[in-house]
Every structure is written in C-alpha cells, then in structure tokens.
Design a protein that fits this description.
Layout: E1 7-12, E2 17-24, H1 28-36, H2 38-44, E3 51-57, E4 64-70, E5 76-87, E6 91-99, E7 110-119, E8 122-131, H3 134-165
Antiparallel strand pairs: 1-2, 2-8, 3-4, 4-5, 5-6, 6-7, 7-8
Helix pairs in contact: 1-2
C-alpha cells in the first residue's frame, strides 16, 4: 500500500455535501473500469467483512445498478443507483437511494458526481455527494466515512492486484 496517495474527506453541512478526493496508483482505464463494471465493483464495493453483490447493472444514462451489501450473517442492505450522466473515462453522475429487496426506494437519497483524471500514471477521483436531506446526512455521516474509507482501501488493493496482471 502506498501511503503517499492523496485522500481528502470533507463535509459542508450547510450545503449538505460531502467532498472526497482519492488518488490511486493505477491508470485511468483501470480505475474507470473499477467504478463502472459490476464484477469489479463487487470485489471492493463494501467494507469488510461485508460483501457487495450486484443483482444487475446497466451502465448507461437512465440505466441502473441494483445491489446489496451482505453481512457475514446474511443480512442484506439493498440500494438502487440510477445513472444520470456519463462522459466516458472522465465523469459520471448517479442518484443513489437505499431500498428494499424489491427496489422500493427509501427516500430521500443522494446525488453522486464522480470526476476522473490521470497524471503520471496516477488517477485521481473527485467525488461530490449531495444529500437531499440534512437529517439523512447527519444520520449517515460517521458510519459512511468509516465504511467508505474501508471500501476505497479495498479498491486500492484490487487495483494493485489487477495492475500486476497487466
């Protein structure tokens, strides 16, 4: 693990927005694939010991990913992600909401804006998360920061393994 990679996690409560910047020691193509392909997302997209499992994913504007984070005792926490904008290899946006196992959304959700850039073989991902509800942001924030930090560490390990295979 390279400890010199950039990682910032900032919250603007007044704007109901979370700003995350994370640098990866991998090329843009590989990082983009890790964020946009279900088989790769399932390998890093949940904090251990939970596992991510995508039921289906259609990565296109208007398409969806329906997935669960599954605990070791089999508890499932479902979410729906609807892709609202895609500019290949540089940006995509989605609306994210928790749901039940039948895709019935628990509102309010959040809007996610991902931006990707590469310099000298390192890829930086800037993520802006706008929450419709301040109360939702407050309720989820502490656990979200811990869990998301763990999932990004999973991603760094996966990217290292995949980079060695190329």
């Amino acid at each position: 693990m390279n400890n010199h990679l950039l990682f910032d996690f900032n919250v603007d409560k007044a704007a109901k927005t979370v700003y995350i910047t994370r640098e990866f020691n991998a090329g843009l193509d590989l990082v983009w694939d890790a964020f946009t392909q279900a088989d790769l997302l399932d390998q890093w997209g949940a904090p251990a010991p939970m596992q991510a499992k995508t039921k289906y994913m259609d990565f296109k504007v208007g398409g969806r990913r329906f997935y669960a984070m599954i605990s070791p005792d089999g508890q499932e926490r479902w979410a729906v992600q609807e892709f609202t904008s895609i500019t290949p290899k540089t940006n995509f946006k989605m609306y994210n909401a928790f749901s039940d196992e039948h895709e019935n959304r628990e509102l309010p959700g959040s809007e996610w804006d991902y931006n990707f850039s590469e310099e000298n073989g390192r890829t930086t991902v800037n993520i802006i998360i706008f929450n419709e509800s301040f109360e939702r942001l407050e309720r989820l924030l502490e656990g979200f920061k811990i869990g998301f930090t763990m999932t990004l560490a999973n991603l760094e390990n996966l990217l290292s393994t995949l980079s060695e295979k190329q």
